[in-house]
Amino acid sequence: MADEEEEDSGPVVELGEGESVEGAPLSRVTSRLHFGIEKSEVVRREGDTTIRTPDGPQDLGDVLDESDETYFPTRQDFEAAVRAVVGTGPVPTE
Fold first, then answer.
1. Is 9 among the domain residues?
2. Which residue among 5, 61, 65, 88 has its CA within the 20 to 30 Å range from the CA of 45?
3. pLDDT band (50, 70, 90) for residue 36
4. What separation, in Å, do the N-terminal and C-terminal C-alpha atoms of the chain show?
């Protein structure tokens, strides 16, 4: 019966063998924060964290320096402010 359960688990996705993507996904960094939070506190705690962006890896502190926001009441507000600076789109893998 255990074999039947394994077969019903769905397709397996294999990871490619190419280079790994530098930087952390924004959602991973966001999950380590609590909201509402001031920009200065985000920079203190996570400013040196490298995040993945469509233009390649960037330090979160540098990205936030380009934002006019000083306080993030929600996770969505924080992510929107970061995306307003870095844009949206695919992250380069090579």
1. no
2. 88
3. very high
4. 43
